[in-house]
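Q: How would the structure tokens look for this protein?
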Amino acid sequence: MTQVLVTGANGRTGRAIVQALARASSPRVPVQVRAFLRDAAQWPAIAALGASEHAIGDMADAASVARALQGCDALVHVGPPMHPDEKAMTANFVAAARQQQLRHFVYYSVLQPLRREVRHHRLKLETEELVVESDLPYTIVQPTRYMQHLENIWKPVTEQGVHGMPFSTRVRFNVADLADLAEATARVVVESAPGAARPGAHFFATYELAGPESLSQEDMARVLSEVLGRPVTARAVPLAEMQAKARTAGLGEDRIEQMTVMNRHYDAHGMRGNPNVLRMLLGREPTPYRQYVERLARR
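A: Here is the predicted structure in token form.
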């Protein structure tokens, strides 16, 4: 039995990884998932996704981190989005993992963390360095932007016919289906576990996980128009409008500032990558954008 702790388990990414790990469990390589949560009230929903047990704690609290890791063989660490203390939080997990001689440390980073102009990327890069120098068997996965960002704007897309994001309508991204990214992450864990065909197969690897197509907002709007059967146009949302909506939603000023810097950077450079590694890990073609949109429209 391989016991895996998943941090950030109640977030969108964490939930997808919990579910993917539960699905990847097999008689040959049985997997048990422990969810790291801040609030016990979150547990029933995570249990329904396939987690077997949970630990309550705070990533900033080293003692609760150490307790959560006890008895675990592997860790999938998903840090809090855009948090200024992510490196320090990850250091708590590294210290506990070294103390307990964890077999496999999987760090969920970001595609192209070397984009140091964006603090979110720079902190991921510095945290990757921390993980690499930990002397632990590690795997770093670097996911691109999610296709699921469409869900955040699904209402204006379907009701107003507008696909709006706070960057140019022509800059390109190799977006990926979160379900594919979670499955690839689960495979990294399971294929490295005792009982697998090649235990340790993904140790000391860093994997760029980019989606199969390089798409602009205009490309996405075109696919949406075809799938929904009505016109959808692309719109570059002004940063001031994005900031106002974020404040209305209750986001803090630091988070808003980092979103502004990130989207200004994406407006200039996009986020393109190569899907070869994701294809290799999945053992199949990654989900194309049209297929994801069709799935979302049916749901």
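The first strand starts at residue 2 and ends at 6.

The domain at 2-146+176-212+272-287 is CATH 3.40.50.720 (Rossmann fold).

Upvote if useful.
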